[in-house]
Amino acid sequence: MPARSSKLSEKLVLLPETTSEEDEEGLFEEDEDAAPPRDDEVERRKRVLPDGLRDKSYAERLPKARRTEKLARVTAYCTAQAYKMRATADFVRDQHAARTKLYDDCLYTVYHLPLLPGSDGYRIRSSPVLKSPGGKSVLDEQIEMNERREYREGYFEDEAVYGVKGHEESEGEFSNQSPDQHPKHEDGSRSGDPNSSIRRESNSSLRSGSPPRIAPDALTFGEMFVFSYGVVVFWNFTERQEKDILADLTFSASDTGLSLVTRPQQEEDFETEEFHFEYNPEIPRPRVFNDMITLRSGDHMIKLSMSHAIAQSTKLSFFEERMAQTMQEAQYVPRRLALTGSLGMKREEVVKILGRLFTSRVDVNLSSNILTTPPFFWSSEPTLSPLYAAFRAYLEIKPRIQVLNERCRVFLDLAEILSDSIADKKMTRITWIIIVLIVLSILVTCSEVFLRFGILSKGKGAGAGEGVGGGGGGGGGAGPMMARLSAMEL
Fold this sequence. Notes:
Blueprint: E1 12-14, H1 39-48, H2 58-61, H3 64-67, E2 72-78, E3 80-83, H4 85-95, E4 99-103, E5 106-112, E6 116-117, E7 124-125, H5 138-147, E8 164-165, H6 167-176, H7 196-209, E9 221-227, E10 231-235, H8 239-250, E11 261-264, E12 271-279, E13 287-289, E14 292-295, H9 300-330, H10 332-340, H11 347-365, H12 376-379, H13 385-394, H14 397-469, H15 478-489
Parallel strand pairs: 12-14
Antiparallel strand pairs: 1-8, 1-13, 2-10, 2-12, 3-11, 4-5, 5-9, 6-7, 9-10, 13-14
């Protein structure tokens, strides 16, 4: 299956949080050799860009291969079919000494770094968490403060403007509209826009609720999001730490003896998504560019929204890989039908292929949560839905699902051909059995007729010889001969 294009191309998605709906995408034109901008480019940016916007950051300019050693990681793993959420929460809280909170089908977990060696055979354990003067955990206070933020109430104001921005769109906007046509106010809105006053009021309310600075200890915490459908998303962990946590979750059990995971996969079968992130309070709003996430704060609710989309993309990658394997196994079937006119497969092999095809489609459309918006964004935090939708658009989840379903439909057509072939083969076998039975019946009947004629002919020949040899005896020999013939006929 083809990978999502945002892995290979420099795609930008602006995530809804604060001001400036347009004009920022022009900053992300390809740099070719990352040379300093020309004088005319600098002049154009000064004219077009509102205050506070910057060009690509150092992290966004870095190649992906060099980001790992310099930036924090965001990694998702699809390791199992499902996780038992309550049991996993109890295990992480008791054995890893981490803070947990359950959001519908997502378990949010916070570790205080650096991680310590675990006890009782477990690999890691969270460092002790600092407490406030009132005796409450600093982490708990931060979680509660993030949940009480009011700036999310403005997310629905400009939902239509958030989405994937390409280079063609940015060039078209800059060429068709000069900065002199609509003078800008200090907040970046145009005087010719009838909604500018409303937008400024909305933006001011957003700014008042948004944290203007980043906590100095923001990178001293690692965050983990465990999803019920078998995906784990890590923020700010090393690869070694991620694998240690996954190993503890996979090989551990609850108090009742049941495993925390359902149908775990082999490590070589794990599906992963890898990003990097940094904090930058100077940007107008969060953004993701070329798998580089830039956030204005360490708000875990923002990360939760992004993690939902990342987890769905990772689960979808698992389905895509399984579909690719099924395609690899079944690709010779149409070719063989075209060349030989027969399947050349046993009935059990055909039924297995059909089962895998139907299983893939059922998992994608019925047994997973990747098709629709999670209930969390409808019932608990509806104002986070635009942020989730923007990141979902960056990951191209909807078109990938459409491609996957289209491939499933093609394979279901193949499954119909295989089913017809099985039915034809079965009917052909039954027909041949009937033909063989008819032939055997005819052969038995013919054999019986030939035997009767042979016996009768032999009996007549023997009777004629006795009549010639014993003619003087009168009719005395006729009685025994007739008796023998009657016995033969009987």
